Amino acid sequence: MEKVAEIIERDVAMAAKVLQLVNSAFFGLARRVTTLQAAVGYLGVDTIKNLALASEAFRVFTPHPRVPLSECEAIQKHAHRAAAIAAALPLEPANRESTVVAALLHDVGSLVLGSAMPDVYCSTRTMAAERGCQVFEAEEELLGTSHAEIGAYLLGLWGLPNIAVEAIAHHHRPDRITHSGFDCTVAVYVAELLEEELEAHPQGAPERGISEHDRACLETLGLLPRISEFRELAAQACV
Prior knowledge:
mainly alpha, Hypothetical protein af1432, 14 helices, 68% helix, 0% strand, globular
């Protein structure tokens, strides 16, 4: 652990992220952690590895000048809050780590489009705003695929666990594959949905605010009756 802490100390930005994470509501520690060695000891090597992967992904895919920097910052904020919500959901312990990292990286495909295909990135958002549809639906119409599949393909090449890659690929359409209970894919889908609700309605989003697409997904997954329960967990995770 000491060697890992020493390596992190060489990267000021990474060191700051580790200390910020370990002291966040995400872990709810009773006392503040002030040293990298203690932070690494608590988080563990796997969590540090995932954090480094996320940090590198957000660093590499900087938005094209046509894409406002604020949008990239919003994607990062959304990712961190979705990961916090995912961690608060009723997950199987064996799936917890993969689910959190999948939630953290689920929109990497949007960063890829904003970096490498700015015209498409901007066009899909304009189309979504004009038609009142979701961005991934506009992407599917223009590209034949969406940021979900693009991000999953990239992260599969980077060596992310298959369970996390699958969750990222299907995080907008979890009803197109079969599930074994409240698995990684379902949790990432729910976490993103709840984060978007909280961002749009900080004081609470009524069920009527759920889109037709998401209502159909939740009904297919058998989760619509539990949405109030999940909302409470999400609100607590994002305090």
